[in-house]
């Protein structure tokens, strides 16, 4: 039994006339008549009573009409769902992100995406860059958000927005009396920072920046989370060089200052190059739009 047979039957039942029903479904009258006859042969009972003036349904035809309408409606829903999936409007998105992005950009992106695509289930996982790479390879993540691109040909990546590094100092620190600093101003300071194995690329970038000014940071305390590091700054243990959007995390006792010549850090989306589902493309489109105002020099 084909869907076209059901559509022909519903049209005939509603029009009660072979000629009008044929016009409605864009076939010649003989083709419609043959379609109904084939349907009746398959069902095994008469569905319509043919007279010279009109067509009437048999009792079996009336029962069949209700089922045919329900079947066609369900088929239309299945087709529409497939089309929406192809547009990235339904499904599931599993998103990994590095610690800290929850304070800069990610909430706005996820909120906007969920507003635009309410039928997509979004699962968030806070993971290190290394854990995200493993999750992407295993198919456990659809997309990852991390600092700086992954240099692996199996992955595609795109810088969604860029942020400069800033200085985070104890509010009582003498350097807070100046609006702008240089990296050399930190040469004699104690630092709090990530362990290198947690943020190797970020760590090395900061080390190179400081080395360009002739010193190596004296790290007195390590922590793996940005809020913890900023709490250590507030406690006066040392200074920190976070990404600019962490200024949003207004912690009592911490003052942020711009630093001349600060490196720019790319926050990138990473996904499997050979697996580019519509839901990933939809998320990237939303992220590009929302994060445009987060780029350096704006916002």
From TrEMBL:
<keyword id="KW-0238">DNA-binding</keyword>
<keyword id="KW-0805">Transcription regulation</keyword>
<dbReference type="InterPro" id="IPR000847">
    <property type="entry name" value="LysR_HTH_N"/>
</dbReference>
<dbReference type="InterPro" id="IPR036388">
    <property type="entry name" value="WH-like_DNA-bd_sf"/>
</dbReference>
<protein>
    <submittedName>
        <fullName>LysR family transcriptional regulator</fullName>
    </submittedName>
</protein>
<dbReference type="GO" id="GO:0032993">
    <property type="term" value="C:protein-DNA complex"/>
</dbReference>
<feature type="domain" description="HTH lysR-type">
    <location>
        <begin position="1"/>
        <end position="58"/>
    </location>
</feature>
<comment type="similarity">
    <text>Belongs to the LysR transcriptional regulatory family.</text>
</comment>
<dbReference type="Pfam" id="PF03466">
    <property type="entry name" value="LysR_substrate"/>
</dbReference>
<dbReference type="InterPro" id="IPR005119">
    <property type="entry name" value="LysR_subst-bd"/>
</dbReference>
<dbReference type="GO" id="GO:0003700">
    <property type="term" value="F:DNA-binding transcription factor activity"/>
</dbReference>
<dbReference type="InterPro" id="IPR036390">
    <property type="entry name" value="WH_DNA-bd_sf"/>
</dbReference>
<dbReference type="GO" id="GO:0003677">
    <property type="term" value="F:DNA binding"/>
</dbReference>
<dbReference type="Pfam" id="PF00126">
    <property type="entry name" value="HTH_1"/>
</dbReference>
<keyword id="KW-0804">Transcription</keyword>
């Amino acid at each position: 039994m084909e869907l076209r047979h059901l559509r022909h039957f519903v049209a005939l039942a509603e029009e009660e006339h072979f000629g009008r029903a044929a016009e409605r479904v864009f076939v010649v009258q003989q083709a419609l008549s043959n379609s109904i006859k084939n349907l009746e042969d398959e069902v095994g009972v008469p569905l319509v009573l043919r007279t010279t003036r009109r067509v009437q349904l048999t009792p079996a035809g009336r029962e069949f009409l209700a089922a045919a309408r329900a079947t066609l409606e369900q088929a239309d829903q299945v087709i529409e769902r497939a089309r929406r999936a192809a547009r990235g409007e339904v499904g599931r998105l599993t998103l990994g992100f590095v610690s800290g992005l929850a304070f800069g950009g990610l909430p706005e992106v996820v909120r906007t995406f969920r507003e635009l695509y309410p039928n997509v289930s979004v699962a968030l996982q806070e993971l290190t860059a290394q854990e995200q790479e493993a999750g992407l390879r295993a198919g456990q993540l659809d997309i990852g958000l991390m600092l700086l691109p992954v240099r692996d040909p199996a992955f595609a990546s795109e810088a969604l927005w860029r942020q400069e590094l800033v200085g985070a100092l104890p509010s009582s620190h003498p350097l807070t009396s100046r609006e702008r600093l240089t990296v050399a101003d930190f040469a004699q300071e104690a630092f709090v920072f990530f362990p290198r194995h947690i943020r190797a690329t970020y760590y090395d970038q900061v080390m190179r920046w400081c080395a360009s000014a002739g010193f190596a940071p004296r790290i007195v305390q390590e922590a793996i989370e940005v809020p913890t590091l900023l709490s250590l700054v507030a406690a006066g243990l040392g200074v920190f060089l976070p990404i600019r959007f962490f200024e949003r995390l207004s912690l009592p006792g911490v003052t942020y200052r711009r630093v001349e010549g600060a490196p720019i850090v790319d926050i990138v989306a990473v996904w499997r190059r050979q697996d580019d589902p519509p839901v990933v493309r939809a998320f990237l489109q939303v992220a590009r739009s929302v994060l445009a105002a987060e780029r350096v020099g704006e916002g």
